[in-house]
Amino acid sequence: MGILYLVRHGQASLGAADYDQLSPRGQAQALRLGEYWRAQGQTFDAVITGTLRRHRQTLAGIAQGLQTRTPEVLQLPGLNEYDSHALIAAVHPQPLGPPDSPERYHQHFRLLCAALAQWMAGTISPPGMPRWSAFSAGVHAALTHVRQQHAGQNVLLVSSGGPISTAVGQVLGTQAQVTIALNMRIRNSAVTELSVSPKRLMLQTFNTLPHLAAPEYAHWVTHA
């Protein structure tokens, strides 16, 4: 039986003009994950990512740490993240300041959770974004591809918190609020494992950071 390793990208640039860029910490997280896997003798038969820059940068860091050539990458737009700014604007049209304080940080994610719930229920359709049904279908298509094409193989998939929590929600059959809660808890560079057979995917681990388990990496754990 194969394993699908779903990896959330390293820390991006929350509050910056361009979020879609790994921070120095995010680059270090990705490199460390690759180094950990190299020490474990981990190899991959297939590699899949979204098309965002932070996905590509995370994969590059992992590959650098692995110090081995990875298979040709399949990029799937269906693994790209939702637009958090468009979602928040749909429920809070007034401009928000950057999340540069604990109060603003918590406000950002409270609004995001409320907007996600309304988007998933079909009550809002933020401009420039797909409907929830189309977003969810993109994730389902990626999982179906893995199940049909890579059963019995080890597959690395680098994406974002939204698609990864959606994938877990589809495998477990969770309600929307549970999927949102899973989304909010996925840490940067965290690994979620699904076993892969031709018939089904099964959850093995969720949101783990084995590469950051040593005490010297405790301050490397981030969520955004």
TrEMBL record:
Keywords: Hydrolase. The keyword Hydrolase applies. One of its GO terms (molecular function) is hydrolase activity. InterPro entries: His_Pase_superF_clade-1, His_PPase_superfam, Mito_Ser/Thr_phosphatase. It holds the Pfam family His_Phos_1. SMART domains: PGAM (SM00855). Gene3D superfamilies: Phosphoglycerate mutase-like. PANTHER family: PHOSPHOGLYCERATE MUTASE-RELATED, SERINE_THREONINE-PROTEIN PHOSPHATASE PGAM5, MITOCHONDRIAL. This is Phosphoglycerate mutase. It comes from Verminephrobacter eiseniae (strain EF01-2).
